[in-house]
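Contributing new records

If you add data, match the layout below exactly. Sequence lines come first and carry their own label; structure lines follow with theirs. Keep one chain per record. Anything else will be rejected by the validation script.
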Amino acid sequence: MSRTVHCQKLDKEAEGLERPTYPGELGQKIFDNISKEAWDLWMKHQTILINENRLSPIDPKHRAFLEEQMQKFLFEGGGEMPEAYQPQ
């Protein structure tokens, strides 16, 4: 049986994540408050950020930027979109 959460990103009851997807305290906050649907939206947004900004997930500065953007996207109603990004 799937678990439900009140998703802070989507402001609705929705299917929760099956397991924590990020380490530490932030990972627990995401697990407790973010739905699968919102996490999928973040993953697509993160891919855009990585590709458009040519980020490397192994670079500590890039990881810090992505974590900051993840918090903004999931909990603060936003997150940056690269200037040069043109949706298809």
